[in-house]
Specification:
Helix content is about 30%, strand content about 25%. The protein is an alpha/beta fold. The strands form four sheets. Strands 12-11-10-13-14-15-16 form a seven-stranded mixed beta sheet, with helices on both faces. Strands 1-4-7-8-9 form a five-stranded parallel beta sheet, sandwiched between helices.
Length: about 325
């Protein structure tokens, strides 16, 4: 049996950490986490965590502080690892890394010669630092769970997003997979909403000059339908916006983009705001600075879900049963 909960927040998403803290009724444990002038990251706890059940909340993503200063994905990864090492050396009872967004998750296989599998490397680093459990949301690929040699709880924003669209009650709706790779997630989403599924298929053909042309085809009926494009993350929004324009060319009605992780790398905001998309719906797994927000963006909170799962892990209650209720 572990001691009381000790909640720590890195600097990547303090707003989400504070929300989880309030929902659990457990204050964030005080700690100094900062960079020296030489860019070395340092962590110092204000009080002992000996024998406590420690949860460190830190997405591996780009973030911005109140002054608009950026921390890179690598800064936030190192911050997570150093915080884990700090509480380990203070004899924490158990250490759980709560990583709402798993950076480097897209490099999950050796799909060409002489490339790394960075998703596995990061998993090894987290375990080596001292984490004994890993909690995350909507991994880019399910096999990443197997990269860890510690227990992994992968949650999904599926229910949060589907309930939003249930309440919105979109008429003549259809869920659209932006590419073949998103088919399984999109199919499950369509089933939850009791809507039909359409799939955008990409085909590459060889031109006479040797270059490749990309042709899009839609499997399913989207004409005069209100479309919901579902994917696990929006990064540069290239695939998403291409799909939006293609659907409009197929005489689709309103188009909604739905995602768990709003990465929004450059030039995503420009592409999304200039596209004919009606709304973008995402979650707060990643903290968005003001300049990445726009009128047609709706952010739903994963705080209540993460807080409940942290409570269950601490009390030794099944996490899986939460999704069977």
């Amino acid at each position: 049996m572990y001691g009381e909960i000790a909640l720590f927040s890195g600097n990547a998403n303090p707003g989400l950490s504070q929300e989880i803290s309030q929902l659990l009724g457990v204050p964030l444990a005080p700690a100094d986490v900062f960079k020296f002038a030489n860019q070395n990251i340092f962590c110092r706890l204000h009080q002992s965590v000996r024998s406590k059940d420690v949860f460190i909340i830190q997405p591996i993503a780009v973030s911005y502080n109140d002054k608009g200063e950026m921390s890179t994905i690598n800064d936030n990864l190192m911050e997570l690892l150093i915080m884990i090492d700090t509480v380990k050396r203070d004899s924490a009872g158990r250490i759980t890394a709560v990583v709402p967004y798993y950076g480097y998750g897209r490099t999950d296989k050796k799909d060409q010669p002489r490339v790394p599998i960075t998703a596995r490397l990061v998993a090894d680093l987290i375990s080596t630092a001292g984490a004994e459990r890993f909690l995350t949301m909507d991994l880019h690929a399910g096999q990443i769970q197997g990269f860890f040699n510690i227990p992994v709880d992968e949650l999904s924003a599926f229910r949060i997003l589907s309930e939003y669209f249930h309440q919105k009650n979109i008429k003549d709706g259809v869920v659209v997979a932006g590419d073949i790779g998103a088919t399984k997630r999109s199919r499950n989403f369509a089933q939850a909403l009791d809507l039909p599924l359409a799939i955008i298929e990409k085909r590459r053909s060889q031109r006479k000059d040797g270059s490749q042309a990309e042709a899009l085809n839609v499997i399913g009926d989207v004409k005069h339908k209100n479309c919901i494009i579902f994917d696990d993350e929006i990064d540069t929004a290239g695939t998403m916006v291409q799909a939006v324009h293609f659907l409009k060319g197929c005489e689709a009605g309103d188009i909604y983009a739905c995602t768990t992780h709003t990465v929004f790398s450059t030039p995503a905001i420009k592409r999304l705001t200039e596209s004919p998309i009606k709304d973008v719906i995402g979650t707060n797994t990643i903290a968005l600075p003001p300049f990445k927000k726009f009128d047609r963006l709706t952010i739903l909170s994963v705080g209540p879900l993460l807080a409940e799962v942290i409570r269950r892990i601490h009390l030794g209650i099944s996490v899986g049963e939460l999704f069977n209720e």
